[in-house]
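Teaching note: in complex prediction, the entire set of molecules is handled at once rather than each chain in isolation. The prompt given to students was simply: 'Predict the structure of this complex.' The entities are:
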Amino acid sequence: MKRTIPLLITAIGGFVLVFAYFSPYTEDWGEKTMIWFDVIAAIAFVLGGGNLLKIHLKKTSDQAEGWGYSVITLLAFGITLLVGLLKIGVNPSPQFPHFAWSGEYRENGSPFWWLYEFAFKPLTATMFSMLAFYIASAAFRAFRAKNLEAILLLGTAFIILLGRTFAGVWLTDWMPEALSGLKIDNLTVYIMKVFVTTGNRAIMIGIALGIASMSLKVLLGVDRSYLGSGQE
Amino acid sequence: MFEFLKNLDRRWVFLLMMLSVAIPIIVIDWLGLSLPEKPSELARNVFDEIDQLNEGDKVLLSFDFDPASEGELGPMATSFVHHCAEKKLKMYFMALWPVGPQMIDDSIDRVIDQYYDDLVYGEDFVNLGFKSGGEGVIKVIVTNLRELYTTDDKGTAIDDIPMMEGVRNIRQMDLIVNVSAGSAGTKEWVQYAATPFPDDIRIVGGCTGVQAPLLYPYIPEQLPGLLGAIKGAAEYEKLVNDAYEPDPDNPRPVFTEGLRRMGPQLVAHLLIILLIVVANIIYFVERAKGGER
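The expected output is the structure of the full assembly:
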């Protein structure tokens, strides 16, 4: 039962969506299925939160390696959840002044807003910015013109790196109109439009065929790996 | 010197990268200058798609990104709102990412609240907020928006919002503008909105640099225009500023963020090229000496 019901839900949901796409008479069914999907997606946030708690509480109680980070994760999760859910420090909305929780959870100056502005925003921006440092370091250590393929890759990288800045325009702006195709900014566009698009289209078609065959296996219940091992 | 470069500690590379980004930021801010920009065909297409709309036309702006990619996408989001506000288009904001509403708030604060205070919430622009489900949300709202959105982001009933009157689904929008940092984003908008309804839905987008190559295959039929990363934002900013800023040679600072960020990008890219060249010189010298083969 534990496996049959999810299999049935998947098969019915999947086939309804397939029919809804091709037949206008079943469009409503597809719409309803997608609304259920969106409801489940919202519930998945609760599941995700529960899973996060389970993993980090276990790590903390076992005092496994790096358990201190788990404590920080749990504290950050708990405080943010509490502040946001209870709308702490939020003023009631002017429309409903008698209802304490009618205000916006991210009202300017509220504790949730403070956490977002001064913790979440700088932390996530910092994480993403660190990529630049690692890319520079990796380029210095790994990018070697060892063979023809590597030379082609290097040449392309130089053109794109220059073409995505004003340097590309400035370096080759002197070229006559007859040779405008060789200007770095135009070469960048050409590489992106022709080589990158060609390669990506081929990969995408391959992936799409794979997805179609995989989806059919899932809908027919041939592939059940998404249900887990069932040993837990 | 050769030995120093050969065994260069990566912390020197990190320091150089920090300086190559920090110095241009400080200098550009100090001098109030930015590098010139030459708009590409794709940026022009994005500009034209919005510019050809008439006053009062409906535009859905889906901000599907978070603070991690604000550096790349924030300026183009600002420019999209700037352009729509200048054209007096009806703006319907929404988000498929949980912190998307904050990104919408930022753009509204930066553009509408500061420079277009004649625009009225609920009549000229509305924030529909975040809904979970990613592409599931798109699939529903292409046929029935009201099934998912019963209130706006502030909790006001959809039926009480004047500009929502008669809006049943997003096929009634004259254009969809998507700013995307990943999934769900421009790819999903193309696959689940523009492709099934090519006669009703037109989409233009802006995305991060790593996403752009994955979206090129959809250009131009399914995706007429695309702004790739900060370079795309700077090109679009220039087009909008040239067309609508009271003094195009001296645009308001909030509308030049993309152009200003091209300075650090230029120096950082030059640094990466320099590092690769130096590393390859070391490699070839070592090889000539009979080292690594």
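Point out the following to students. The two ends of chain A are 15 Å apart (CA to CA). The first helix of chain A runs from residue 4 to 22.
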